[in-house]
Structure formats: structure tokens, C-alpha cells
Design brief:
By secondary structure, this protein is of the alpha+beta class. The N and C termini lie far apart (96 Å). It is built from 20 helices and 25 strands. The chain has a 6-stranded antiparallel beta sheet. Strand 8 and strand 9 form a beta hairpin.
Length: 734
């Protein structure tokens, strides 16, 4: 309790950056090197500069590792290329092996989140290329730590007397899981964010204390360096210029204004001007964005469609969408942050109403809001031309976002610790709960657990020795089927082998399928250990739009990647098969309600106290259709028999069967719900040119025990009226 009373006296100016750095180390450990958006291309630029001593040139005709990032301003890459050059990275080609089944940009798809295969994801590999990348990422984390400190100082500048505002604004930055994730990746977003945050701090100091030459020169240098880090840094120039005009009007300090504008101009020309001239020379484009669009891909989209389709993704990815836009956190987290954002926006109006006579506070919030508006408008302009609705592109304006949001929340008197502490706790838990499980190798077990079903199938040197698969059940669109497979390789494969798992209906059509390397894409078979037992977990997702009613089974198989044919498994019986299959039950997309229609004849016979014959219809002289309704729960290998006798059945007398046509329900009855209706179809075979009248007898029997279901008729079979039978040939002639 004493802590809660005295927390405002804690040294947050260094305590919060330190806490951020420590949590960042956890993210550095949890996320492998190439798993943030565009990291591969960022590394490609660094590698190119280090190895060639030149800047990359964007070309639509050639594919380079740097891809679209070759058009980016070079400051971050130049700095990190010095680090790259200091290490032996000759193992890069062996280290950098991309996952061909990676699921980029589809967070609802399960598995294959890793862009690259990692021989040793945990604990991390600290040699060669991997070590160089860890050092680069550690330095990048250091840059982000400066950002956190700058946000704190900016918030104290806006309202020096309210330490709670600085704590809250800094926590909204430092303990944002997405900010932490990007801050520990290889990305120029981090450097431009750091420089922009420092520039915001100096600009706010200028608004509070007036023009000062050294501050103006430092501010100009930060703007120029931010521009040379990423084009979003250039947004600072007009915002600071407008702030300078406002300050000139308020103070009349013309000299200070001229020094500020002159410093920005003189800093931009030598530090960043050469970059713009280079773009003009190479691409005929001042900013080089046209070349980036040519490589990355253009699109045309209206603003309403953009907001409707992609605004949710932008919000989510600002607060936490890890990997290559592929790993979501808990939905409650996003809802809470949305609520917090809405409350903060409402609180800003309350703040303006209460503090409308505080000239500096209004000017500071106007400056932050204008900077965010310029950045937001630029992002919208960019995303209208290409796919770029990702929250990390808002991080250069994180000072504005965090302080404005904190101002609104504090105006409504929400306790800062009530928000900061849960954010801190969630930021610590997120990498452990959401990130590490996506990249870790499948675990090895000493033996097959008792809960697993022992099985045997062998694809070359790969054996399936057991599995844990749900008991046959009724599955619907959107359902997820958990699978655990236990593999035991005789030795690593010489070529990569890919696994496929499909959900197949009775006609052999696939309802759902996925291809992957083991561990859902984390462990190639060329890296397997001989005789080890691997527990391999998957989830089969049924499409939301899947349709049909049918029995289904799993098909499990292997093929050599990339162009090899399927490997036929050797089963325990000694036979070769196309795939290893496991019955999984039935797929039913909605309530089963099959009816014969108005031309059918009604009936009300109940079999086995669970199946009622609702109606029947005879057509084409040989086809009988029966409409059934399930009235109670029942299971077993049940079949419908339909018998045509030469003469009418007499109990106790011998009889001769003319023809019989049994049928089974499309799915086993235990997968149907009480009240659902289904149809069985029976087509009788007849002698050529046959024509006569006969009675049909129908009923149910259990194929496993050859026992009929009870019915209120002799021999538990229902007699239908005499019907006129016509052979197919005679029917066709008619």
C-alpha cells in the first residue's frame, strides 16, 4: 500500500526504459531472426551493402534478397552493414533456408508461421550469421529504448506536474507487444521512430520555452537523419515548420524562426538531398516510391473500401500481430485496446473543455495531432496504392499516439497504474504464450504415451508409430480437428520430405488439406535424428463455406519436395497403399432435412424405437426411395434392406427372393441428431425385358451382428403394396 501511495516519486525516466529493454530481451530471444514483416528484405539490403560496398538499385527485372526495400533511404542499413562486416557470415546460404509453405499475412491459418527453418531456435544459435543478426537486433533494441525515453520526456514536457501522464504515455509505447516485437527485429522502422521521437521532444521543448539556436540545430539534424532513415521521417519538416510559425506569431522571435527553418533546410540538403537526387537519376522519381511499387505490386482502391476492408487489420497490427502478419494474440486484448483508444479519444474532448485556456497545452496537443494527421494521411495515400495496412508503419508517430491517448485517459481520471501494470504483464506473457510455440521444433518423447493409439505405416525411412486423433464424430464448417502424430525416422532423409494431411469424403474429394514439413513447418526431415520419436501436433481446419453431408476420413501421406511423387506407405498388413487413412466420422454442414416431396406416399412405421419411415416413392419401375426420420439415438453398422419376393410373404412358409437392393445412410446414424431426416435409395436389378407386379419388404439390420431392428411386422420387415416392376431395357424402349 505504501508503494501505491508513493509510486509517483519513482525514477520513471530511467526505470521505464530499463523495463522496456529487459522485456525486449525476452522478445529478442523468443522471435527468430527473419520472422518480422519484411525482415528478409531488410537483411538483404544490409548484406548487399556490406558485400558490395554499394547501395542496391531497384529493378523489376531481377530478384534480389533486398526486394522492395532496395528503394528505402539507407541510413539504418549503412550503420548495420558495419556490424555485418565485423562477423563471419559465410554460412548465410546454409543458414537462410526459407519455408516454402509459410503462411504470410493470413493469421487465421494455423501453422507454418516460420519464414525460415532454424536448426536451433531455442536456445538461440550464437555463431556466424546468427550472431551477426543478434548483435544488429540488440542495437536496434537499444534505439527503441531511446524512443521510450523520448516519449517519457515529451510527456513530461507537455504536463510537467503530472507524472501519471508520463507513466501512462510511456507504458502505452514500451509495453505495446507489437512495438516490442518490431523493436527487436531488423527494421529501419525502429531508427526512424527513434529519431522522430527525439525530434518531437525537442519540438515540444521549443513550443514551451521558445526558440533556442542549439535546440533548433539539433532538431534540424534529427529531421534530416529521420528522412535519411525512412521517408516517413520527412513528415516532421512541415509539422515543425507550422509549429515554428505558430511560435513566431506568439513570441515575435523572427530570428529564432529563421534559424529553425534555415537549419532544417541546410541539414536536409547535404544529409538527405543526395538521396533524392540519386532517385531522380535512377528512377526519375524524387522519392523512389515508384520503383518500390513496381516491385512490390500496385493496386487501386477507394478510401471507403480501404477503411472497410483493412482498418481492423491496421488496428490489430498496431497492438500485436506477430510474425509475418500471421500470429494473433487473444481477441480480448484487441477489444480492450480498442476500448482504451475510444475512451482516450472521448477524454481528449473533455481535456479541451477543461483546459481550453491553457495555450501551451493546446499548442502541444495540436502539434502532436498535426504530426499524427500528416503521418496517417501519408499512410492512407500509400495503402491506396499497395498493400501496406500494417500498424508498425504508425510507429514513427508513436509519441503523438501515446501522449494524445494518455491525455484523454488522464482527463477522465483513469489511474495510470491500472493501465500500465496489466500492459506490462501482458507484454511479458505474449512472447511466451504466442510466439515461442510457433517456432519451436516438435518435441522428442522417450516412448509412445499410453493415451496414443499404436499404429504402423512406413514411408521409406519414416514410420508412423502412433497417433492421437479424436474419436469419430459429427463435424461442421469451421470446426477444428486436433491431431497428434508420432514419427520415428530410421535416419534423416537425403531429400526434404513434405507431409500432407487431407480430410476426404466417401467419393475421394478433399474437404480440407494442408501440406507442411514436420513440426508444422519448423523441422525439415533432413534434420531429423535417427530413431528419435517426434510428437507432431496439428489442427485440421474445416472451411467455413464447406458444404455437404458425407462420411469422412483422414488421409496422411508423404512426398519428396519439391517435385517428387507421393511415397506409397507400407502398412502393417504388408500391403502398399496410396495413403494411411483413419475414419474421423461425418461432415454435415447444417441440419439434415432430406424429403421426397408431395408425390411420395406417407407412412409411420418405426424401426428399433429410433427410426421412423416418413414416406416412400417408387419410380422407373425399379427405384425405391425411402424417407426416414431419426426419432431416438441409435448407432451401429446399420443398413436398410429392400427385398422383392417372387410371391407374397407368408409367415412360416418358404420364400424366394427375386431381387434385393440394400443401402446405407450417407452417414452413420450416430452422427445425426434426433429429428433429422434422410433418404435411402434402392435400385433393383431385374431380368431383361422383365415386367410384373410384386411386393417390396423393407427394414433395418445391424451388419455387424446380422440382426434386424424390431418393427411391428412379421420378421421385422414392412410390406409395401404390390408395385409394377419394369426392366431397364423395356423402360428405355418406352
Amino acid at each position: 500500500m505504501r508503494f501505491l501511495k508513493n509510486w509517483r516519486g519513482l525514477p520513471f525516466r530511467w526505470l521505464l526504459p530499463l523495463a522496456f529493454f529487459c522485456v525486449g530481451l525476452l522478445y529478442l530471444y523468443s522471435a527468430p531472426h527473419f520472422e518480422a514483416s519484411d525482415t528478409v528484405a531488410h537483411v538483404g539490403v544490409i548484406k548487399w551493402i556490406a558485400e558490395t560496398g554499394t547501395l542496391p538499385v531497384q529493378s523489376a527485372e531481377h530478384e534480389f534478397l533486398y526486394a522492395q526495400e532496395g528503394s528505402q533511404p539507407p541510413l539504418y542499413y549503412l550503420l548495420m552493414s558495419l556490424v555485418w562486416s565485423a562477423f563471419d557470415t559465410s554460412d548465410f546460404d546454409d543458414y537462410f533456408q526459407q519455408n516454402p509453405y509459410v503462411s504470410k499475412g493470413y493469421p487465421k491459418h494455423l501453422g507454418n508461421r516460420n519464414v525460415v527453418f532454424y536448426r536451433q531456435p531455442y536456445p538461440p544459435d550464437l555463431g556466424g550469421t546468427s550472431l551477426a543478426l543478434y548483435v544488429i537486433r540488440l542495437l536496434t533494441l537499444g534505439m527503441a529504448t531511446v524512443t521510450v525515453a523520448a516519449v517519457y520526456q515529451s510527456a513530461r514536457t507537455v504536463m510537467p506536474a503530472q507524472s501519471g501522464l508520463a507513466l501512462l504515455a510511456t507504458s502505452l509505447t514500451a509495453f505495446n507487444p507489437m512495438f516490442l516485437f518490431i523493436s527487436t527485429s531488423v527494421s529501419n522502422d525502429v531508427l526512424v521512430t527513434t529519431l522522430s521521437s527525439l525530434a518531437c521532444w525537442l519540438a515540444l521543448l521549443t513550443l514551451r520555452h521558445g526558440f533556442e539556436t542549439r535546440r533548433s540545430v539539433a532538431l534540424a539534424l534529427l529531421i534530416a537523419l529521420a528522412t535519411l532513415s525512412k521517408l516517413s521521417g520527412l513528415a516532421l519538416a512541415p509539422v515543425v515548420a507550422v509549429a515554428g510559425l505558430w511560435l513566431l506569431r506568439r513570441t515575435g522571435d523572427r530570428r529564432g524562426f529563421v534559424v529553425l527553418i534555415g537549419s532544417i533546410t541546410l541539414a536536409l540538403l547535404p544529409l538527405a538531398g543526395w538521396w533524392f537526387l540519386r532517385n531522380l537519376s535512377l528512377y526519375g522519381d524524387l522519392f523512389g516510391t515508384g520503383a518500390m511499387l513496381d516491385h512490390f505490386g500496385r493496386r487501386t482502391m477507394s478510401l471507403p473500401r480501404l477503411l472497410l476492408d483493412e482498418f481492423e487489420g491496421l488496428r490489430i497490427s498496431y497492438w500485436g500481430l506477430f510474425g509475418a502478419f500471421s500470429i494473433l494474440t487473444n481477441r480480448i486484448h484487441y477489444l480492450l485496446m480498442d476500448a482504451l483508444s475510444l475512451i482516450g479519444a472521448v477524454g481528449l474532448f473533455v481535456l479541451f473543455a477543461k483546459r481550453r485556456r491553457n495555450a501551451f497545452l493546446l499548442s502541444a496537443t495540436a502539434f502532436l495531432a498535426f504530426f499524427l494527421a500528416i503521418g496517417g494521411a501519408t499512410l492512407i495515400w500509400w495503402t491506396l496504392q499497395t498493400t501496406a495496412s500494417t500498424g508498425r508503419l504508425l510507429f514513427p508517430y508513436v509519441t503523438s499516439i501515446s501522449i494524445l491517448l494518455a491525455l484523454g485517459l488522464c482527463a477522465l481520471r483513469l489511474p495510470s497504474l491500472l493501465i500500465a501494470l496489466p500492459m506490462f504483464a501482458f507484454s511479458v506473457a505474449a512472447p511466451i504464450v504466442y510466439i515461442i510455440p510457433q517456432y519451436d521444433h516438435p518435441p522428442q518423447v522417450e516412448r509412445l504415451p499410453d493415451s496414443a493409439v499404436r499404429s504402423y505405416a512406413r514411408w521409406g525411412d519414416i514410420s508412423l508409430i502412433g497417433h492421437q486423433i479424436p474419436a469419430p464424430a459429427r463435424w461442421s464448417p469451421g470446426d477444428e480437428i486436433p491431431l497428434t502424430l508420432y514419427w520415428q525416422p530410421l535416419k534423416p532423409t537425403e531429400e526434404p520430405h513434405a507431409l500432407f494431411i487431407s480430410l476426404i469424403d466417401s467419393s475421394g474429394e478433399s474437404l480440407a488439406t494442408f501440406d507442411s514439413f514436420p513440426g508444422w513447418g519448423t523441422l525439415p526431415t533432413t534434420w531429423w535424428e535417427a530413431d528419435a520419436i517426434y510428437r507432431d501436433d496439428y489442427i485440421m481446419q474445416l472451411p467455413e463455406n464447406a458444404q455437404g453431408v458425407d462420411s469422412v476420413q483422414l488421409h496422411i501421406g508423404w512426398y519428396t519436395y519439391p517435385n517428387g511423387s507421393d511415397i506409397r506407405p507400407l502398412l502393417e498388413s504388408g500391403e502398399r497403399s496410396d495413403a494411411y487413412t483413419v475414419p474421423i466420422g461425418a461432415f454435415i454442414d447444417s441440419a439434415v432435412d432430406e424429403r421426397l416431396g408431395v408425390d411420395s406416399i406417407a407412412d409411420d412405421t418405426v424401426f428399433g424405437d429410433a427410426i421412423r419411415l416418413e414416406a416412400w416413392r417408387f419410380s422407373k419401375g425399379r427405384v425405391l426411395e425411402l424417407e426416414w426420420q431419426l426419432t431416438g439415438e441409435i448407432g451401429g453398422d446399420l443398413r436398410v434392406f429392400a427385398i422383392v419376393l417372387q410371391e407374397r410373404f407368408q409367415p412360416g412358409s418358404p420364400f424366394e427372393i427375386l431381387t434385393q437392393a440394400d443401402d446405407v445412410p450417407q452417414v452413420r446414424l450416430e452422427f445425426l441428431n434426433v429429428g433429422e431426416r434422410f433418404i435411402t435409395r434402392h435400385e433393383f436389378g431385374l431380368p431383361e425385358e422383365y415386367r410384373n407386379e410384386h411386393n417390396i419388404y423393407v427394414g433395418w439390420y445391424n451388419e455387424g451382428i446380422l440382426q434386424r431392428l424390431s418393427a411391428p411386422y412379421p420378421e421385422n420387415m414392412l410390406e409395401l403394396p404390390a408395385l409394377h416392376f419394369i426392366a431397364p431395357a423395356e423402360d428405355q424402349n418406352e
